[in-house]
Amino acid sequence: MGASSDPTQDGSDEQQKRSEIYTYEAPWHIYAMNWSVRRDKKYRLAIASLLEQYPNKVEIVQLDDSTGEIRSDPALSFEHPYPPTKAIFIPDKDCSRPDLLATSSDFLRVWRLPDSTNSDDAATTTANNNGNGSRGVGGGVELKSLLNGNKNSEFCGPLTSFDWNEAEPRRIGTSSIDTTCTIWDIEKEAVDTQLIAHDKEVYDIAWGGVGVFASVSADGSVRVFDLRDKEHSTIIYESSEPDTPLVRLGWNKQDPRYMATIIMDSAKVVVLDIRFPTLPVVELQRHQASVNAIAWAPHSSCHICTAGDDSQALIWDLSSMGQPVEGGLDPILAYTAGAEIEQLQWSSSQPDWVAIAFSTKLQILRV
């Protein structure tokens, strides 16, 4: 377990290479992963395990750019019930709010990280909590909220994903296999809105503004919802083959006219313009196996990164989309990892850096 930058055979290139790729090896298979956006926590990420057992793990890791090592802070590792399907740090660049991390699995949980990771108290607190409601957790990480949107049933529909509203950070939207999307007010720890969003399982959700979100489902549709009119939704896209599930959704924060979605077990990414529903504006078709993750550039309206089972992370320039390109669009950058890439995140606070996860490895790449 540990981390290193990847030197090359050629000594003259070593320093150059060192600053381009950093690798961390976790003691388990990584699935959920997210960059911190706080300006005072550069190169910090949360990673979570994918273990076929009830207790799973979350680690907070950070790159020390003076040594080129990514290190886990043992004081901030904690147990988590079931594998988290997603983890997101609070969208708070200015550090004006508590340092929070949200995770989804059986329920939505909000964790509070200590203000200082160096406190003696944090180092001596024992990590014996599994996130079921007791407040103290290992290493000074505190379970602030456990949010259950289905209190009338002893069974919970597992949460497939969630998104934290950047424009209104008190709001988190979750998606569930029970066909619903739930909008939480995390300050009140209360459900703001719960909608039956689709005919089948909802696999992903993304905010497009203060009161607007979209979701994708096993029913093969992308739907957009406006919280000012909860009775209606707009179908932006439907799979060309009936009941072909859509599994991931990315909404372009720099140009909210555009979103991208992944079709289950498909090597293509579909890019949509919400002004022209039903027809993709472009299809990205250079992956050789199923695509697992997409991330729009946080600083550019026309760049997107995609990653998949072909072990490739590809960056695309979509500035020409809408104009026919003979043979289809090619990526402008490609990186090949050591195994199938399951997770991809583009840092909004340091947009030169993309993080990928494959097998037990986390890599951060300068783009």
Automatic annotation (TrEMBL):
What keywords is this UniProt entry annotated with? Acetylation, Repeat, WD repeat
Q: Which SMART domains match?
A: WD40
Which InterPro entries does the protein's record reference?
Answer: DCAF7-like, WD40/YVTN_repeat-like_dom_sf, WD40_repeat_CS, WD40_repeat_dom_sf, WD40_rpt
**Designated name of the protein:** Uncharacterized protein
* WD repeat segments: 284-320
Q: Where does this protein come from, organism-wise? A: Arachis hypogaea (Peanut)
